[in-house]
């Protein structure tokens, strides 16, 4: 820069003196022209050097100037995007650090490995659906990157992993549009041909789908909280992924696992996923899934099985769902054991034909609560005889989607009773070894004792007041 | 105002409203105890839903009984005859009586739920918007069934008639109507679903819970099937308002047209 300046000064002095050598001939130029030329040169020089000086403040320049494996500490202010990260660096923000995109394209594109993004907000990404590319707040296209404590708003997708493996996305909050046209909304986290990634403790609210898996294998999702989406988890053509302790609530569907195999779902909560087409967990064309220790609470259907085979459904709790398990005849060879069915309107409905699943394993069936009375005279915790769960609701549900609107109706119990008397019920489940839940029985008896005490207290108070009045 | 004061004095001296209230209080506490054991961070939502499920069963019955007995008492004590002979027409009497009954019964139940909100606040993550949606649902439920009770009280001549009519009406709304809907359900298709929808949403036992569930965010009206989109052709709040206007107006007009004069001796 100093060299450029000194050349400029020399030329300016020559011009100012009015003497310039051209083609070895000495020419005299008027001082006025010299001044105009000098002015133009100065303006261009200022523009050139000035722009170089301003560019130092843009985020892209700050990123470009950060050395490999170096750290860029951002201030508590809004930086204008979009940016592309092409070398392995760490970017750390502060509480009020915001990276605001241009409203087109990806706000942050990571096309290298070993980048860490931490503690800032990303907003105003591209929403264009006519583009060949699906835009995101953060698009990761390489392996081994970390995204931690990032908030993403006003972007199409939140974090998009495109053929990126071994990345870690944790404590990311993605806030979507909350409602509107489905196609106009993106997903919270989107995995496309991406394997062995970790998705930990993220919070997604109001996007199209919470986490979308597309041809992505061996990923782990743990402790994520997803609500107010279409499908909390939307999962296509992906194998051997694991889901632990995630909470899916207030979605149209908690998790939709489709065309996949070897999925493990353990200790997740599927809560309050309601609507005529809703479910806690949809299993469609899936094989060899392991579903253990999950809670299905207040869903339209707890689990919905369609064209799925050989799932192990073990030690889950189905509480206050309209239908605990809805299993279509196209699904077979599922093994259900140790599951606890409590206060569901229908514990199990087998639709479209005879049930082809196994309702006990190693002489261990399921807890049926009040749905099926079980006799256990030898007090070994296992029913003395096989039991059958019967229902007539299967016909209604098979015939018309609107049947789900009536499942909570007080009339349903009368409908079931009427059909029981008329012998129109069908066997939904046969459990060879039904289990007895002694803890639940004890809990209920405490409640009855409390109710009895309350009534005694109220009655004696009334009697005392009456007696005092008489006196 | 005189009517409201008179109604309050009559209701507060009779045991009916206090018995009804004590039932609601007792059941509220039972549901609270059950809800506290539920394994969810969404306990408040689930609690409100459970509480309203209980209300759907008993509040119609209690409202119908209290409101209808208030009218039949006017007939039995001949105060209705005195009032309508001198200064009031039956229409104006019924209008003022309706206002008074609504004010007193609503006042008692709303006061209870406001008081109970304090208990809720200490037991759950309290959400004011959710609570207001719940309270509004209770108010609409009570208004509709109070007016139906006033209608039944107007058309019946004796207490025995009235008890039968009250229980029958409650049974129709809570059980029989849904059994009829279930019977008709296989004939419902995409083409005729809107006709079905009109009858479905005219039933306050469907409309009010639907409003509450959508207000609590449990049911979304955003991602519905084509059939459901055609079925739900207005906002849940609009359904609720239409429903209330229809039932209150219908009950009022029918009360005037079919009024009974009380037991003839």
Q: What is the CA-atom radius of gyration of chain A, in angstroms?
A: 34 Å
Number of helices of chain A: 6
Low confidence ranges of chain B: none
Strand content of chain A: 25-35%
Q: How many strand units of chain A? A: 38
Range of helix content of chain A: 10-25%
Q: What is the multimeric organization of the chains shown?
A: heterodimer
Average the pLDDT over all residues of chain A and give the rounded result: 85
The termini of chain A sit apart by 109 Å
The termini of chain B sit apart by: 33 Å
- Class from helix and strand fractions of chain A: alpha/beta
Total tally of structural domains of chain B? 1
In this structure, how is the largest beta sheet of chain A organized?
A: 22 strands, parallel
Total strands of chain B: the figure is: 0
Key structural traits:
heterodimer, A: 471 residues, alpha/beta, 12-stranded parallel sheet, 6 helices, 21% helix, B: 265 residues, mainly alpha, 11 helices
Summarize the structure.
Chain A is α/β, with parallel strands linked by helices and 471 residues long. Chain A is 21% helix and 34% strand. Chain B has 265 residues and is mostly helical.
Description:
The complex is a heterodimer of chains A (471) and B (265). With 471 residues, chain A is of the alpha/beta class. Chain A is built from 6 helices and 38 strands. Chain A has a 22-stranded parallel β-sheet that branches. In chain A, helix 1 packs antiparallel against helix 2. The N terminus of chain A is likely disordered. In chain B, helix 3 packs antiparallel against helix 9. Chain B is globular. Chain B starts with a helix and ends in an 8-residue tail after the last helix. The longest helix of chain B has 34 residues. Chain B has one domain. Chain B is mostly helical and 265 residues long.
């Amino acid at each position: 820069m100093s060299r450029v300046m000194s050349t400029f000064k020399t030329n300016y002095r020559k011009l100012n003196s009015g003497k310039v050598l051209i083609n070895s001939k000495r020419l005299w130029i008027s001082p006025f022209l010299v001044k105009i030329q000098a002015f133009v040169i100065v303006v261009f020089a200022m523009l050139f050097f000035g722009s170089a000086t301003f560019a130092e403040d843009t985020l892209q320049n700050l990123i470009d100037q950060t050395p490999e494996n170096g750290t860029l500490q951002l201030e508590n202010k809004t930086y204008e995007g979009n940016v592309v990260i092409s070398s392995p660096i760490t970017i750390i923000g502060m509480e009020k650090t915001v990276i605001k995109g241009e409203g087109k394209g990806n706000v942050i594109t990571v096309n290298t490995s070993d980048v860490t993004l931490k503690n800032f907000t990303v907003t105003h990404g591209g929403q264009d659906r006519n583009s060949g590319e699906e835009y995101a707040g953060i698009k990761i296209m390489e392996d081994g990157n970390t995204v931690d404590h990032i908030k993403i708003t006003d972007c199409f997708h939140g974090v998009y992993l495109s053929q990126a493996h071994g990345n870690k996305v944790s404590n990311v909050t993605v806030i979507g549009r909350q409602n509107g046209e489905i196609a106009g909304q993106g997903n919270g986290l989107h995995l496309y041909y991406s394997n062995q990634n970790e998705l930990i403790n993220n919070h997604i609210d109001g996007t199209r789908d919470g986490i979308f898996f597309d041809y992505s294998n061996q990923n782990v999702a743990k402790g994520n909280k997803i609500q107010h989406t279409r499908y909390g988890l939307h999962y296509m053509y992906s194998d051997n992924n694991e889901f632990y302790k995630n909470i899916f609530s207030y979605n149209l569907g908690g998790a939709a696992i489709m065309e996949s195999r070897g999925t493990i779902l353990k200790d997740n909560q599927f809560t309050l996923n309601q609507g005529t087409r809703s479910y806690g967990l949809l299993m469609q064309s899936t094989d060899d899934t392991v579903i253990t220790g999950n809670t299905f609470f207040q869903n339209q259907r707890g689990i919905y099985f369609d064209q799925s085979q050989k799932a192990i459904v073990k030690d889950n709790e189905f509480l206050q769902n309209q239908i605990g398990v809805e299993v279509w005849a196209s699904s077979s060879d599922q093994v259900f054991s140790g599951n606890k069915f409590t206060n569901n309107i229908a514990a199990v409905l087998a639709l479209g034909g005879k049930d082809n699943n196994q309702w006990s394993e190693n002489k261990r069936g399921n807890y049926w609560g009040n749905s099926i009375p079980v006799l256990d005279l030898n007090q070994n915790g296992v029913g003395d005889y096989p039991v059958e769960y019967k229902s007539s609701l299967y016909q209604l549900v098979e015939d018309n989607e609107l049947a789900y609107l009536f499942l909570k109706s007080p009339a349903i119990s009368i409908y079931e009773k009427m059909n029981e008397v008329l012998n129109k019920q069908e066997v939904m489940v046969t459990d060879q070894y039904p289990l007895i839940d002694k803890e639940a029985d004890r809990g209920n008896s405490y409640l009855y004792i409390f109710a009895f005490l309350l009534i005694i207290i109220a009655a004696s108070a009334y009697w005392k007041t009456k007696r005092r009045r008489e006196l | 105002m005189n009517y409201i004061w008179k109604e309050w004095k009559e209701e507060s001296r009779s045991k009916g409203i206090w018995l009804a209230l004590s039932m609601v209080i007792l059941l509220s506490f039972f549901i609270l105890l059950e809800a506290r054991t539920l394994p969810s961070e969404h306990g408040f939502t689930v609690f409100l839903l459970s509480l309203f499920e209980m209300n759907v069963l008993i509040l119609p019955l209690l409202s119908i009984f209290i409101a209808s007995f208030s009218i039949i008492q006017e007939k039995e004590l001949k105060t209705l005859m005195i009032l309508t002979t001198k200064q009031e027409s039956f229409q104006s009497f019924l209008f003022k009586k309706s206002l008074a009954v609504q004010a007193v019964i609503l006042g008692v139940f709303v006061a209870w739920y406001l008081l109970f909100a304090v208990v809720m606040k200490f037991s759950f993550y309290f959400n004011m918007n959710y609570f207001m949606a719940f309270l509004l649902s209770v108010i609409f439920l009570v208004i509709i069934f109070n007016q139906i009770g006033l209608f039944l009280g107007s058309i019946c001549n004796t207490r025995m008639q009235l008890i039968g009519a009250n229980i029958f009406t409650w049974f129709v709304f809570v059980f029989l109507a849904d059994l009829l809907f279930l019977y008709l359900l296989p004939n419902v298709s995409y083409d005729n679903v809107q006709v079905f929808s009109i009858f479905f949403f005219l039933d306050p036992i469907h409309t009010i819970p639907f409003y509450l569930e959508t207000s609590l965010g449990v049911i979304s009206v955003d991602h519905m099937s084509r059939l459901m989109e055609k079925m739900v052709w207005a906002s849940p709040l609009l359904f609720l308002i239409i429903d209330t206007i229809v039932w209150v107006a219908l009950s009022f007009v029918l009360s005037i047209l079919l009024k009974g004069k009380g037991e003839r001796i």
